[in-house]
Amino acid sequence: MSITVAVVGAGSWATALAVQLARNGHDVKMWARSNKLAEEINTGRENKKYLPGIKIPDNISCSTDLEKVIDGVGTVLYGVPSHAFRDVFNKTYPLLSSDATVINVAKGIEESTLKRMSEVFEEETSPGDVERYVTLSGPSHAEEVARDIPTAVVVASRDQKRAEYVQDLFMSSSMRVYTNPDVVGVELGGALKNIIALGTGIADGLGFGDNTKAALMTRGLAEITRLGKAMGAFPFTFAGLAGVGDLIVTCTSMHSRNRRAGIEIGKGKSLEEAVESVRMVVEGVRTTRAAKKLAALHSVEMPITEQTYNVLFEGYSAREAVMELMGRDSKPEIEEIVTANWLT
After folding, report:
1. What pLDDT score does 336 carry?
2. For residues 61 and 28, is the Cβ–Cβ distance under 8 A?
3. In angstroms, how far is CA 238 from the centroid of its own chain?
4. Distance of CA 55 to the CA centre of its chain
5. 123-161 as b/e, with b when 16 or more CB fall inside 10 Å?
6. What would the pLDDT profile of 177-193 be if each residue is shown by its tens digit?
7. How much is the mean pLDDT over the chain?
8. Which residues have a catalytic role annotated?
9. 184-334 to CATH, choices 1.10.1040.10, 3.40.190.10, 3.40.309.10, 1.10.10.60
10. pTM for the model
11. Average pLDDT over residues 160-168
12. In CATH, what number does 4-181 get?
């Protein structure tokens, strides 16, 4: 069944998902901040700045008028950066129909409040509205989704029927969509892996090898899981697409903004220079600051996050941070097994 979907945002990921929806036969109304970008999408059928080389299907239209895009639409996808989500959502909430399904695809934590995006949504809406919220995450580069390359993602919601509805919207021969009721875990996995991608990028920039990358990814997953568990997530979520899946793709691909920024830092550039070279939002920078505060708040040890923070914000050299990680006290790999005496 074909429906109309509003997509708020016109960056690379929002555009790629709009293309995916259009390929599935849905009509898509996009919102862009820039008149120039909206005109380029409508007439040139391309988003040259954020997704060059991808033809925009004819059943996608773009406007700078939020009311025109959202009015009367029952499914609204927010594809704006996490730090902008609250502001953009507040502007659009009065325009939403009372039962509209809200899909959020930002992977981040609001730095000023340490809130996940579903918590921001809950704060800004009426009681019970959180059931309308669905988050989409998993290992999915915009450049590959737009090119129809086989991809698997996960959608999470407190309302299983909403999750299944969004699953059906995106499911195709090239996109496999799973559902998961663990909104906390799916959101945290999508946000925190960006920190580890910065770290692995830094290691790459220093000229280290695959051994280093594998160690950072594996131990990074361990600290993501520790914090997630402390915040109420289901630990096995981090063994799935929103956890290890997204971690792998973000830490190993040159499509990853966070990895690319990390590489430049490892080569000696400042944080500002590295972010400027990427020319798009690097979510992991803000998330590193937020995660460090969350780790302290929940008394969770996150050594890779801490050292990434030190490099980004405390003037540590990248090589010094790696040596700090390597020089930590010895310990068992899986402390829970030892603590529970599973081996005796």
Report:
1. 57
2. yes
3. 14
4. 24
5. eebeeebbebbbbbbbbbbbbbbbeeeebebbbbbeeee
6. 999 999 999 999 999 99
7. 95
8. 193
9. 1.10.1040.10
10. 0.95
11. 98
12. 3.40.50.720
